[in-house]
Design goal:
- InterPro entries: Biofilm_reg_signaling (IPR052155), EAL_dom (IPR001633), EAL_sf (IPR035919), GGDEF_dom (IPR000160), Nucleotide_cyclase (IPR029787), PAS (IPR000014), PAS-assoc_C (IPR000700), PAS-like_dom_sf (IPR035965).
- This is EAL domain-containing protein.
- It comes from Rugamonas fusca.
- It catalyses: 3',3'-c-di-GMP + H2O = 5'-phosphoguanylyl(3'->5')guanosine + H(+).
- There is one protein chain.
- The chain has 595 residues and is of the alpha/beta class.
- It has 3 domains: 153 residues, PAS domain (Beta-Lactamase, 2-Layer Sandwich); 159 residues, Reverse transcriptase/Diguanylate cyclase domain (Alpha-Beta Plaits, 2-Layer Sandwich), CATH 3.30.70; 246 residues, EAL domain (TIM Barrel, Alpha-Beta Barrel).
- It is 46% helix and 25% strand.
- The chain has 23 helices and 25 strands.
- Strands 17-18-20-21-22-23-24-25 form an 8-stranded mixed beta barrel, surrounded by 4 helices. Strands 6-5-9-8-7 form a 5-stranded antiparallel beta sheet, with helices on both faces. A 5-stranded mixed beta sheet has the order 11-12-10-15-16, with helices on both faces.
- α11 links the parallel β15 and β16.
- α12 crosses α13.
Length: 595
């Protein structure tokens, strides 16, 4: 900065800092530098209105000019600042750092912009962005230093916060997908150079949504934070655990072997399964892990995550709470699953779904007293897709809700048509998935369909699996109560394969237990199956509930069930699932015989 006078005109020197133009009257500064005083009124009008600190020092570091903002940061009045140096007003360490920086700038002969900290006498730590440069007199000699400093503490913290949010998960503090991507690119480069393997482990908690639904998101979030601390604690220094979102975690392990990976995966599962104490709740969860290797399975993050995710899904299919390595077979299954999900999205509109009906019979006299509606799907290129394959895909993709509503509406409509044709009334059973059952609109939707199709509720029975009911018993009770108010019957499907509390079973508004076919299959030869079936029938009778056995295929099975008091029979012994037209003919053939 140079000061001159020409043709009796004042020459303005402009200093730009972060878009702020600070104008200093050269004549005022020249006088200040020569005489050490300042025309205060003129100074106030020029620099007093800005929030940036504006100041001028002589070569000894004494302030010749300081606006109100500069004096405020120093904890002094403007009058107290003039003629004093930083050592007289700031902690020694801070003052020495500023003095050194000022000296370096003067020695360089250049104006520079840098960040610097100021700790005032109150102990406040302030970060400034300062533009400083030497001041020259008319002869070109350096006579001091000017400076303009802006407090960027808040903006810097905001910048750091933004940077943190870009690389870390807010809830758990673990690295996020962005940082994982950066880290794995570096790790892949190192592994490729050294001929080493990398492993990516994909962890997904089993049934975590049930915790959020039953206990609230605050409990779920607290569990995730506690789990993150556990996972971080068991990782080696060179390894990484990141949260992708929800209940999904990814581990990046370097320099690994297959045997060591298996041990690590099991260690992670063990840590996940340890009990959590959250807000007076003792919670136990499990997880499923998929494992993918670099370079064996893929050469980039997206590919590794895709492979590990497919392996994780396979682990869930195999029973959950286990790990699974990615294989070519899993890749084929993953491709098939994507094909199924994609095709399923168009199955309704393209009329590929049909409903078959399997008759249910009275064990006492062989009359048809009910039927179960069973969904079937035939795709033009995929062929006949089994429910065991497409129902889980529908649940995972969220398609189960519209598909379930379609099944219920068409089954109810068919039942109404049979009654209008004069068919002897019976009860039609329709299955509910756990996802459907948890949908808040279920009771209202069921009531609306019954009203629209004009079917009395007494002819509809909804089946829910035992495990579905026990995911969240209090919530299940509430939904069953609402359905009961609409006159709809509930039955527990696949009874015996999950753990049910008798105290809850008494509270469930159900009127029938369906004995799972796995107990019926070997009932003639397996003493344990016979004991289980006998106990279920006796318990149901004691609770005032009916029983129905599914999967009955032989005379011996039928005889045992009749002998021990099972009320209803369903299975290939009597009939396979039939189309609506076939079912109508079957009823006409059977009813005269039963009569």
């Amino acid at each position: 900065m140079r000061f001159e006078r020409g043709a009796d005109l004042l020459v303005w020197s402009l200093l730009v800092l972060n878009g702020v133009v600070v104008s200093l009257l050269s004549e005022v500064l020249r006088r200040a530098l020569r005489r050490g005083d300042v025309d205060r009124n003129l100074l106030t009008s020029v620099v007093g209105g800005t929030s940036d600190a504006i100041y001028v020092k002589d070569l000894d570091g004494r302030y010749l000019l300081a606006n109100g903002a500069a004096a405020g940061y120093l904890g002094r009045s403007q009058a107290e600042v003039l003629g004093r140096d930083d050592l007289a007003m700031l902690p020694v360490e801070t003052a020495l750092a500023i003095t050194k920086l000022d000296g370096d700038i003067i020695a360089s002969g250049r104006t520079q912009t840098q960040e610097e900290f100021l700790v005032n006498e109150a102990g406040e730590r302030i970060l400034f962005q300062s533009t400083k440069g030497p001041v020259y007199d008319a002869s070109g000699a350096v006579v001091g230093l000017f400076g303009v400093s802006r407090d960027i503490t808040k903006s810097k913290l905001a910048e750091e916060r933004i940077q943190y949010l870009a690389h870390y998960d807010v809830l758990t503090g673990l690295p996020n997908r962005v940082q994982l991507d950066e880290r794995i690119q570096h790790a892949i480069a190192q592994a490729a150079e050294g001929g080493q393997k990398l492993a990516l482990l994909f962890l997904d908690l089993d049934h975590f949504k049930d915790i959020n639904d039953s206990l609230g998101h605050s409990v779920g979030d607290a569990l995730l934070m506690a789990l993150a601390r556990r996972l971080r604690a068991i990782m080696r220094a060179d390894d990484m655990v990141a949260r992708l979102g929800g209940d999904e975690f990814v581990f990046l392990l370097q320099g690994v072997d297959v045997a060591g990976l298996a041990q690590t995966a099991q260690r992670i599962l063990d840590v996940v399964e340890e009990t959590f104490s959250i807000e007076q709740h003792e919670l136990t969860v499990s997880g499923s892990i998929g494992i993918a290797l670099y370079p064996d399975d893929s050469g980039d993050l997206e590919g590794l995550v895709k492979c590990a995710d497919a392996a994780m899904y396979r682990a869930k299919q195999n029973g959950r709470n286990r790990y699974c390595f990615f294989t070519a077979e899993i890749e084929a299954l993953a491709v098939r699953r994507m094909q199924v999900v994609s095709a399923l999205r168009h199955a309704l509109e393209q009329h590929q779904l049909t409903i078959h009906y399997q008759p249910q019979f009275s064990a006492r006299d062989g009359r048809i007293i009910g039927a179960e509606a069973l969904l079937r799907w035939h795709h033009p290129s995929l062929g006949q897709v089994s429910p065991e394959e497409f129902i889980p895909a529908a649940e995972d993709s969220g398609l189960i809700v519209p598909i379930g509503e379609w099944v219920l509406r068409h089954a109810v409509r068919q039942m109404r048509a049979w009654l209008d044709e004069g068919m002897t009334p019976f009860v039609l059973a329709v299955n509910l998935s756990t996802v459907q059952f948890r949908h808040p609109n279920l009771p209202a939707m069921v009531a609306a369909i019954l009203a629209e199709e004009q079917l009395p509720a007494q002819y509809l029975e909804l089946e829910l699996t035992e495990s579905g009911a026990m995911h969240d018993p209090p919530a299940a009770i509430a939904v069953m109560d609402q359905l009961h108010e609409h006159g709809v019957r509930m039955a527990i499907d696949d009874f015996g394969i999950a753990y049910s509390s008798l105290s809850y079973l008494k509270k469930f508004k159900v009127y029938k237990l369906k004995i799972d076919q796995s107990f019926v299959r070997d009932i003639s030869a397996d003493p344990e199956d016979r004991a289980i079936v006998t106990a279920i029938i006796a318990m149901a009778r004691g609770l005032g509930l009916r029983t129905i056995a599914e999967g009955v295929e032989t005379q011996a099975q039928l005889d045992f069930l009749r002998e021990h008091g099972c009320d209803e029979i369903q299975g290939y012994y009597y009939s396979k699932p039939l189309t609506a037209e076939q079912f109508g003919r079957f009823v006409q053939e059977v009813e005269p015989c039963a009569a």
